[in-house]
Amino acid sequence: MAIVEEKRPVDLINHFVVGDASTHQVSMFETIVNGQANPEVTRLEQHATQSAQRGNFRSHQESQNRQERRIKPAAKRSRLFAPSRVEIAELLEQQDLLPAIVFIFSRNQCDEAAESCVRAGIRLTNPEQRTEISEIIDQRVTNFSDDDLAALSFSKFANQLESGIGAHHAGLIPAFKEIVEECFIRGLVRLVFATETLAVGLNMPARAVVIDKLTKFTGEHHQPLKASEYTQLTGRAGRRGIDTVGHALVLYNQYVSFDQVAALALSRSFRLTSAFRPTYNMAANLIQTHSRQEAHHLLNLSFAQFQSGRDVVELQARITRRSKERDRLREQAKSPFGDIDEYRNAFEIRPDARQIIDAIDSLKPGDLILVPKSGRETKAAVIATAQRVNGTKLTLVAGTKAVLQLQAGDFDTPPVKQGHIVLPDSLAFTSPKFIKEVALRVMRTKPNKLHAKSSPSKNFTELSHTVSQDPELRRRLIAAKSADRIDSELAIMEARINKSVQSVSAKFDELVQLMQRRGYVSAWNLTDQGRTLARIFHELDLVVAEALTDGLFDDLNAAELASLLSTFVYEFRRAEDPPRPIIPTTLASKWKTLQALSNKIAQDEESSGLSPHRSLDPGLMDVTFAWASGDELIDILNEDLTAGDFVRTMKQLIDLLRQISLVAQLSETRDAALAASQALLRGVVAASQGSVLQ
Fold first, then answer.
1. What is the pLDDT of residue 180?
2. Does the global pTM surpass 0.70?
3. Between residues 498 and 217, which one has the greater pLDDT?
4. How many CA atoms lie within 13 A of 311 on its CB side?
5. What is the pLDDT of residues 389-419, one digit of tens each?
6. Cα angle for residues 452, 421, 411 (degrees, 5° grid)
């Protein structure tokens, strides 16, 4: 069940900000007026478009004259334009909308925006506030050396903050981001240019939020913001207990119409998408702690399963409910006089649930069977079959003109075909005439003679069993039969889940089968390799486990091991081609073997119908080797590697090294991994350490 709350604790006003070249002014309009797009902005946009079209027409007429006189055409400027970052800062201050967060989907542009405001002379702090900001900064950077601060462009960073302006993005080291956050929360920094990462997980509300563009670059192409993303960003606008209303400002963009802006502000359609997928480590731990059936049950109730195939989730939920009812009936069927199942096995013929299901599935329209009705059996003809969540549903017409709908749970024994009639083909099967004609044909058709079923041999009479003395025997037998019927239903539903190609548990089974082929699982038990895999928590867990087994991490010193393992945690994310990696000479052979192993596993995954894991990336091997060997930060950072990315990657690498120090077979490898983690944890990395490294 999803719970949706549409009422904000602080009301929100959406604004549209646009510059007009004809008036040389930047104006702010309310986006929504009386529940629809502001007509004033719509007219402004239409007039600007018409003016541009007339200008283009005149330009076309004058082009020949210009060519004859060899005069270069004058550059045309659209009447409407997007305000600059400096103009936005001035507008926010004039409209009393500070403190504010300006969301820009580019790290570099966040830095440039903050610096451009400082260069323009914008200062949002007084002397007392600047002193307080300096004290906060000094407290946070005491563990940094002068060389590290120089490498981090500390002077520029501090100067921006003392002006009441800051940048916040993943390219900053954690200590710098924490300084910006503390200063903003305390009201000292009043304008922050940030990427969308600030919209998630941090309590930094502002009076106003500005969205620079309603499109963002994914690394491959530009895509528009989703309604859920817009809501997440604008959720920062309005401080509870301080502001009576929050403000969300969207800037003009020539590629996004005002109608699109208004539609986004009015949208209430939000879709959550599950990022869950079974991993090898998760599979190993499920195998270690649960039965196969329990593992499937957990996976089929996941949100990911709900999105990929809702019918499977509904089936699993029904299985849970019906299983509880079955267990209640089994408890009700227990007799204090003895074992009721022993009694039933001796004196009742109970077919397997699968036999009933198969018998029903074999029936076709026109087949005659005997059906249970009012405590006795009566002839009926099948007129239709349909597949339902809990199995095949039969629609039948009895000789009495009664229309029946039955499923496997309604039969105590497999239905046997007694004959066949030809159904009327000129009438709809729901019409009274059709039902009357079928009932007549049922009555006229004699059933096949059935051979009497021989009773199983008994070693004692029914009365000799102690359960026969139970005064509640009849009620207990009815409960036991009802439980049997539910077992039949459960068998049908579980079979349907197993056949579902959209089942998350089906993907899980494919993953387990690959683990079996590669020696991690045997008969739903972990091998020694599997137990190692269960202790490796990483997105490339299987590659790490196999590299450990193959000894690829053995016989390396601390710097070499850190360098080789960096290929698991580093990933070049920019749109352009990555620079050519520099592989330390001593690791060339190991890297080649590791890369071949990774490619082989990826091929196995692809042939198994699984998504292949991401490729290893050697782009940080030389930097990691240098840092683990004691080189200084200022000699390591470059235009392709920000300090924030470097620190984050080193933290992830330290975590992986510490796992290796616990699971590697050879003590020398464990020692090298521990030494490598200690060698990396220094300088700016140690100063930025979080609880994960402590």
1. 94
2. no
3. 217
4. 14
5. 667 889 999 988 888 888 887 787 788 898 9
6. 45
Q: At what angle do helices 558-569 and 588-607 cross, to 10 degrees?
A: 30
- The one-character DSSP state at 199 is G
Q: Strand 376-388 relative to strand 367-373: parallel, antiparallel, unpaired?
A: antiparallel
DSSP 41-52: HHHHHHHHHHHH
CA distance 212 to 114: 14
| CATH class name, domain 535-693 | mainly alpha
Q: Provide CB contacts within 8 A for 96, sequence distance 6+.
A: none
DSSP 424: P
Long-range (24+ apart) CB contacts under 8 A made by 522-529 are 524/287, 524/291, 524/292, 525/287, 526/284, 526/287, 526/288
Judge: domain 11-39+80-266, CATH 3.40.50.300.
Answer: yes
CA atoms 549, 552, 553, 557: torsion sign: positive
State yes or no: cis peptide before 127, omega within 30 of 0: no
HSE of 118, CA atoms in CB hemisphere, 13 A: 22
β pairing state of 419-420 and 367-373: antiparallel
Amino acid in the structure at residue 156:
K
* Integer Cα distance of 284 and 280 in angstroms: 6
11 forms bridges with which residues in the sheet? 245
Q: What angle do CA 229, 248, 125 make, to 5 degrees?
A: 115
- In whole angstroms, give the CA distance from residue 601 to residue 613: 8
Tell me: pLDDT of 451 over 60. no
Give Cα 502 distance to the centre of its chain: 16
Query: Three-state SS for 503?
Result: coil
Helices and strands (H, E) in the chain, number of each type = 26, 19
Q: How far apart are CA 560 and CA 550, in angstroms?
A: 17
Contact 632, 147 (CB under 8 A): yes
Task: Say how far residue 290 (Cα) sits from the centre of its chain.
Answer: 24
How does DSSP classify residue 667?
H
Which of 326-340, 487-501, 520-534, 539-553 has the least mean pLDDT?
487-501
How far is residue 264 CA from its own chain's centroid? 23
Give the integer Cα–Cα distance in Å for 631 and 496: 60
Q: How far apart are CA 579 and CA 154, in angstroms?
A: 27
What size, in residues, is the chain?
694
Give the model's pLDDT for residue 236.
Answer: 83
Give the Cα separation of 634 and 147 in Å (integer).
7
In 10 A of CB 315, how many CB atoms?
Answer: 21
H helices of 537-687, where?
541-549, 558-569, 588-607, 621-628, 643-663, 667-680, 683-687
Element holding 147 (H helix, E strand) = helix 146-151
| Fold agreement between 11-39+80-266 and 535-693 | no
Q: Within 10 Å of residue 466's Cβ, how many Cβ atoms?
A: 13
Kindly report, residue by residue over 629-681, the tens digit of the pLDDT. 999 998 888 877 888 999 999 999 999 999 999 999 999 999 999 999 999 99
Residue tagged 């920000």 (tokens): 642
Residue type, 334: K
In percent, the amount of the chain with pLDDT more than 70 equals 84
Report which of residues 537 and 199 the model is more confident about: 537
Q: Among 308, 359, 328, which residue's Cα sits nearest to residue 497? A: 308
User: Domain residues of the chain, as ranges?
Assistant: 11-39+80-266, 310-449+459-499, 535-693
